[in-house]
What does this fold into?
Amino acid sequence: MRGRCPMITFQDAAESPTKAVFVAGASGYIGGRLVPRLLEGGYRVRCLARSPKKLEDRGWASEPRIEIVAGDLAETDRLAEQMRGCGAAYYLAHSMVAQDAASTGRDRDLAGSFAAAAAQAECERVLYLGGLAEACKDARRRLASRLEVETALRSGPTPVTVLRSGTIIGSGSASFEILRYLVERQPVMVMPRWVDRACQPISVRNVLHYLVAAMELPEAADRSFDIGGPEVIPYREVICHMAAAMGLPHRLVLSIPMVTARMGAYWIHLVTPVNHRIALPLADGLQMGVDCRDAAAERLMPQRLLGVRKSIDAALGKVAAGRVETSWTDAGPIAGDPDWAGGTTFVHREETEVEASAEEVFGSVCRLGGRHGWYAADFLWRLRGLMDQLVGGPGLDRGRRDA
It folds into this structure.
């Protein structure tokens, strides 16, 4: 039988010098945005990272109420010691990519280790963010495997709060980048039939509000919530909203039955910076055509929910201003990342003198690559991007973490 939630409030925990909030996955897209929201709420935060260097350049890393610890989710006893003294623990470390049997088993084992560690550390609450489509009865195995993470987290005595979200709209999210690149590059789109199925997108800022509010809500202990925005619309309309927000002409969307989720994922890989292994679960989720099954989250944790167009406008505004807080690429490792992200850096140095200011030189260097290309023989630069895509890389579309 599951243990009862202790009669405490996390508002008290925030004011107490002995309580903190534990975040596993602080280097990821959601975790990297959640941490500063917790700081704004007055909490002390302890972040777990396999490579603490990944967090050193975050604006909040030097905050006095932040503690960054190096650790591995598989080491249960050590993890329990690192979690000790924390009132709540967020599990945001599950894999984004399409799962095979081996990776599914590893994700399940890591979640089980986290649940055991939380019990040993006497945490009062575990919180997890999943997807709406994962809980559907007819969900594909690639999505159902993620439900096993939730089941593993519930294997211990610690109460678990689960939030299941629709498609997240936010600058830097994988789903947003897919949408933006598709709309920008394809005046005519050939899409699967699920483009006409209903979905319930949600702004990332609304997701973050729910994550913090659920921790502070005693009634949320040992409970699951569906979270989504105020609109339930076909994905076709989401595409139209994006085109309008970007000032582009109306996009013609043709739906045909022969396009499978896997075929769509490979097409996304070719047209956008998002790898097909990440795109596949996103495509599967859209194929389910799910929306929130109840409004409990909206009732118990009220906030102003942004509609699809306002969510897109907010995200595009962040991109235009160069203020993208986190990106789907942050967690890594991705081929070509430097050594702090698990890859390798090759350095070649040359020196020359130019008659220009340091600012002018740096501006010229920053324009190299990507859409700007090279100073000459641009076809070679595009050929290099095509070769990279053919072996599974992002080609020329990776972009920069910072403008």
